[in-house]
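Field log, afternoon session.

UNIT: design team B
ACTIVITY: writing a sequence onto a fixed backbone
BACKBONE:
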């Protein structure tokens, strides 16, 4: 049997054209409506075809083939039959639409959804592209949409239906696209096909990628889903959405050292309130943007990659504190040639226009720091 041969069913009415095969025993038969029907090889019969897999015309009652007529003067010599020309549509093998039902696994009825990132070449982490995969670790079909944030709105990046207990490639990207992927939203809903199931809540999880991690090899760890090390974010774990929480070390320190209400002495003559330790109620956050403080290894990294890493850290700190009116942040960038300082000022003038900035204390930081006040 070959693709393109015309067949009929042995024990039931119907037939069609062979469009493909599933294993050794299943033949896909495309009927006249274009539907592919899986049939056992033993349950179909090939209708007579010629060498080009086209059905031979039915013989006429006179016993002469329809292609056996010949002009006068050529008696006894039959012309060779001209094969029918295939159309462009006939040249293309129809896609195989039959698929076996997905197998369910034990304890797979709890919804688990993950987003994974894999470097294409871990040995060249400074220049390699990355793959993003969505992992459906459950017995449900999942219709998923992934969007990235653009200012105050969102832009859909990818959507598909992910089959149970499978993973699917979302996209490949390079470092120049990392910034636009910092804020992601994963939405979706779950169901089972052709069988009863328990309703699952819709998925709507926003997460923020820790972009500096993409420059550190040790954060890509082995997992049961890939042969290669991967950086994996949980979206839904055991049926519960996982909302990412990012906390700055400075915020933890501020919370620990925040004076209790009883320790704050009444202010006099308009002075700022101070605790017994002498700290103001709005402690200054210091952020070191020197590249050695952000990355473990900078070998082979271009200047643009290094600058992008520093600006990513700057934006991360600003966005986490943007609602804290009156908060002061000192960004330590060093003097150098002023490239980083100018880039920070440009960010403040366009992205954080409500904030004010000035040179930080020369006595404490020299010429290498900028003080930003949140308003």
């Amino acid at each position: 049997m070959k693709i393109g041969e015309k067949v009929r069913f042995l024990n039931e009415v119907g037939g069609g054209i062979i469009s493909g095969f599933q294993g050794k025993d299943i033949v896909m038969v495309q009927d006249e409506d274009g539907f592919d029907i899986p049939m056992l090889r033993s349950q179909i019969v090939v209708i007579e075809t010629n060498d080009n897999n086209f059905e031979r015309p039915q013989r006429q009652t006179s016993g002469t083939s329809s292609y056996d007529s010949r002009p006068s003067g050529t008696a006894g010599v039959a012309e060779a039959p001209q094969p029918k020309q295939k159309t462009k549509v006939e040249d293309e093998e129809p896609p195989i639409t039959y698929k076996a039902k997905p197998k369910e696994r034990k304890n797979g009825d709890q919804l688990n959804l993950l987003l994974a990132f894999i470097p294409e070449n871990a040995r060249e982490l400074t220049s390699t592209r990355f793959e993003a995969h969505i992992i459906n670790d459950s017995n449900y079909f999942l219709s998923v949409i992934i969007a990235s944030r653009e200012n105050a709105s969102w832009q859909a990046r990818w959507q598909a239906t992910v089959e149970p207990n499978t993973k699917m490639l979302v996209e490949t990207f390079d470092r120049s696209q990392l910034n636009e992927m910092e804020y992601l939203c994963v939405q979706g809903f779950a169901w089972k096909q052709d069988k009863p199931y328990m309703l699952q809540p819709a998925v709507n999880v926003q997460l923020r990628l820790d972009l500096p991690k993409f420059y550190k090899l040790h954060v890509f760890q082995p997992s049961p889903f890939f042969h290669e090390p991967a950086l994996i974010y949980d979206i839904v774990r055991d049926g519960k959405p996982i909302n990412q929480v990012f906390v700055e070390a400075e915020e933890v320190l501020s919370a620990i050292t925040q004076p209790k209400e009883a320790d704050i002495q009444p202010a006099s003559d308009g002075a700022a309130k101070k605790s017994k330790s002498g700290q103001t109620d709005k402690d200054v956050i210091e952020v070191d943007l020197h590249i050695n403080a952000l990355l473990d290894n900078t070998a082979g990294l271009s200047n643009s990659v290094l600058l992008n890493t520093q600006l990513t850290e700057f934006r991360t700190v600003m966005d986490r504190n943007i609602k804290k009116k009156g908060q002061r942040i000192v960004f330590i960038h060093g003097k150098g040639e002023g490239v980083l300082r100018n880039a920070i000022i440009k960010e403040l003038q366009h992205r954080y226009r409500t904030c004010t900035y000035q040179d930080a204390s020369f006595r404490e930081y020299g010429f290498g720091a900028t003080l930003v006040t949140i308003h």
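LOG NOTE: The chain has three domains: 1-61+86-100, 113-241, 249-260+278-373.
NEXT ACTIVITY: expression trials, pending approval
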